[in-house]
């Protein structure tokens, strides 16, 4: 805005806030006096230059808001001065009006190409000059408002980038903490083995897999998928990792104390009920999770299973047969009256039991369809059956990435637990 002192003085121009200083460039002293007289009467600060070279020297120190320059001058012409003026690369834009007796379209095009904003035909009419300056003032006002908004946006983006970098560092550290919940990706128990796969779709995820054994004859293993994604789901997996700790059996809800400091595995259905009660007892927690938890007798191959809303486990028979197991069930932490049913199956030496999250079966393929359980069976059958559990899981995930949609990519956590039964 033009300051109050200028608005009320000698008919100064309204709406001229962005134009305070004007540079008049003309080799004719008379023309300069006529222009300068009008401009000062309208309240502008006016600087004079008798040539393009002199004008460039002035502009090198401080740019005016508006330039009125004659086109035809000895030495540097107004057109050459305009080109050089635009080459200063100043942070602040100045409005440039060329004064000319030329009216041909090709000459006007030359002036626009050189960087001129407007033209006035000589001799200059005072009313037209006022109108052109007024238009230039409006344009400069909008341009400077836009520049200020861009500056604020750039500052905000810089702040966001720094905040993002800080969050990114925290998430990387959080991933390391989450990875510590699964210290071993494969472990032998006599002639049997449990192998784990955990592939979060971001820095951190809501899937959890694990295993633990209180003695040489029994092992417990599980696959968990917490609802939602991101930080809250990851925090829930951290909590569940404590409830099902493979290192601190006295804190593990799947263990019960026995005489002499020994531990034994609780029945899977009892473990699901305990987790359900604990989760619902904590107010403010909206997350729930699906789970398959199994206990295996390593002597007989007897496996007890509780399935709580998780995909049906897959039995991979030694002879090549594939069959689904489980009876469904409700997720954990959803309903206080939920019933968790336990069932049993028997594995023979060489059989495998695969637990997996819906990151496999709900993965989007290149044609837009989901993999589905049947597609997972095909994927398993395509893998080399003679390789160990860890390599089979790695190959299974690799094959999944090869057929997934490039557009969707890995949009959910992918995890699996594979139990290889070697016999008692």
Automatic annotation (TrEMBL):
Superkingdom of source: Bacteria
Key word DNA-binding present: no
Domain Response regulatory: 21-137
Residues found modified as 4-aspartylphosphate: 70
SUPFAM superfamilies assigned to the protein according to its UniProt record, in alphabetical order: CheY-like, PP2C-like
Keyword list, A-Z: Hydrolase, Phosphoprotein
GO biological process terms on file: phosphorelay signal transduction system
GO molecular function: phosphatase activity
Name recorded for this polypeptide: Sigma-B regulation protein RsbU (Phosphoserine phosphatase)
Upper lineage: Bacteria, Pseudomonadati, Pseudomonadota, Alphaproteobacteria, Rhodobacterales
């Amino acid at each position: 805005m033009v300051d109050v002192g200028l608005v009320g003085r000698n008919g100064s121009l309204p709406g001229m806030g962005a134009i305070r200083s004007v540079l008049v460039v003309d080799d004719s002293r008379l023309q300069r006096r006529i222009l300068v007289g009008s401009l000062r009467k309208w309240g502008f600060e006016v600087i004079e230059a008798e040539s393009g070279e002199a004008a460039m020297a002035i502009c090198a120190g401080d740019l005016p808001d508006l330039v009125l320059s004659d086109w035809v001058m000895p030495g540097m012409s107004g057109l050459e001065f305009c080109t050089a003026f635009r080459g200063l690369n100043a942070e602040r834009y100045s409005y440039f009006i060329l004064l000319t007796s030329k009216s041909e379209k090709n000459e006007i095009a030359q002036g626009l190409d050189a960087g001129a904003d407007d033209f006035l035909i000589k001799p200059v009419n005072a009313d037209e000059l006022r109108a052109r300056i007024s238009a230039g003032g409006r344009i400069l006002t909008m341009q400077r408002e836009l520049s200020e908004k861009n500056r604020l946006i750039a500052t905000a983006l810089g702040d966001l980038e720094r905040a993002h970098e800080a969050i990114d560092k925290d998430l990387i550290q959080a991933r390391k903490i989450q990875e510590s919940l699964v210290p071993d990706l494969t472990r032998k128990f006599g002639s049997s083995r449990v192998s784990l796969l955990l592939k979060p779709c971001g820095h951190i995820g809501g899937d959890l897999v694990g295993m633990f054994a209180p003695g040489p004859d029994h092992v417990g293993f599980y696959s968990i998928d917490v609802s939602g994604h991101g930080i809250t789901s990851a925090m829930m997996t951290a909590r569940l990792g404590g409830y099902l700790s493979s290192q601190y059996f006295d804190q593990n809800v799947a263990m019960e104390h026995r005489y002499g400091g020994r531990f034994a595995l609780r029945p899977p259905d009892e473990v699901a009920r305990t987790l359900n009660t604990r989760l619902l007892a904590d107010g403010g927690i909206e997350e729930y999770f699906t789970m398959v938890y199994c206990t295996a007798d390593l002597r007989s191959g007897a496996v007890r299973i509780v399935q709580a809303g998780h995909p049906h486990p897959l039995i991979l028979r030694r002879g090549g047969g594939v069959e689904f197991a489980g009876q469904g069930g409700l997720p954990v932490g959803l309903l206080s009256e939920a019933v968790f049913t336990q069932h049993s199956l028997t594995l023979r030496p060489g059989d495998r039991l695969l637990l997996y999250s819906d990151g496999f079966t709900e993965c989007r393929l290149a044609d837009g369809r989901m993999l589905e359980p049947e597609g997972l069976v095909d994927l398993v059958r395509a893998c080399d059956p003679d390789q160990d559990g860890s390599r089979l899981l790695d190959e299974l995930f690799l094959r999944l990435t090869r057929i997934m949609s490039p557009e969707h990519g890995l949009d959910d956590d992918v995890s699996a637990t594979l139990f290889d039964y070697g016999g008692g």
